[in-house]
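Lecture notes, unit on protein representations.

Consider one protein chain, 424 amino acids long.
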Amino acid sequence: MTFRTVLAGALALALLGTAAAAPQAKPPRKKGEELPQAKVDAAIQNGIQYLWKNIDELKPVTIHGPTETGDELLLLALLRGGLRETDPVFQKLFNGMMERKLLKTYSVSLQAMVLEELDRVKYQYRILQCAQFLVDNQCKYGEFGYGDASPFVETLTPTTSPKGAATPSGSALKKDAKLPPGERKKPAVLRRIPVEQKRIRGDDTGDFSCTQYAILGLRACHDAGIILPEQVLSLAMSRLRRGRIPDPSAPGLSGFCYFLCQAPHAPYGSMTAGSVGSLVILDHIKDGPLSWQRDVDVQEGLKWMGAKFTAKEVPGPHHFTHVLDKNHPCNTPQWFFYYYLYAVERLGMLTGIDAFGPHDWYPEGARVLVETQAADGSWGGPIAARGERGGDTLFNTAWAILFLRRATRPLIDVASEDRMLPKK
């Protein structure tokens, strides 16, 4: 998908035209700044090959109860990276995912994204189950935490297609020869299905990392024709708004942290990019295209990104600097770097913004990734030496691929359409 589309241009121009928007001035681009596409494509393919060869090195990790495998993140990267669905590695991961119960927020959110990307009509029932899990795992005040099984997921009844409407079969999964690797024509949604929140978790709060992934999952459910409860969206939006905090190092700027933070905590890049992107998604679902341009919290977050963005490290002292020993792996400079770049990619693609401040986020990030990719095709290798999870290099490589592929689709690019309902 070509990033500088008419849609992206229109969104960027509209943003610049709003009173609250931060100026996105860019200096003349230096000669040779843009990497040749062939180099980017080669880096993606080398990363895909690394995942393909090392997928069995991924070890399940126990997080607050049941284990997560991380398969869903790898599936999304493989899918958007261009690996065919018929590939045996893809099938092994996919079949394992479909056989497991829905137990954790990260996994369920990414599963909804994989299924919506693969065939949102064929897998609509499973996506509905993902939606039920997510809305039932919202915390009391609006965030999402790691989650646990909802008994109401199993009580859902599969729906049948409307009379006379053909549900796309495996033929719908065939890649269009005219589309770039990883791109698919999405089938029109045949039926819109409401989901109801049937429980509220007893936890008062979650965190803004789980929350941003839950909202990515809810966006996928929305695009698959699932009608989400308004109160779930509003509560999540309200909590995110409360999470914007002043930056003590930059008077007049504010961004986001891991929790509802106060001093000595400060905004940092991965949480600011992810939280602003989450608000953009919620604005879109609740109030329609471009409504995020009128969102003060979005605009303030974009101002922070414009002032602080760098593609070389995560800007800002992240939350764990203040709560963990300095030698803890989470305080390793690269620990959140690839996670951060994927959050940057999402924010750029969701808004159609090419630059944060004077920085063209994609060329700068792509250059760093291409130049630092290991000879075996991976990224972030030293972190995996911890051995605790066994999958850190795989996860970092997946996030890097998603960034390089510009994997996030613009919000109105895949809006759900129910052609079986009468027009208003």
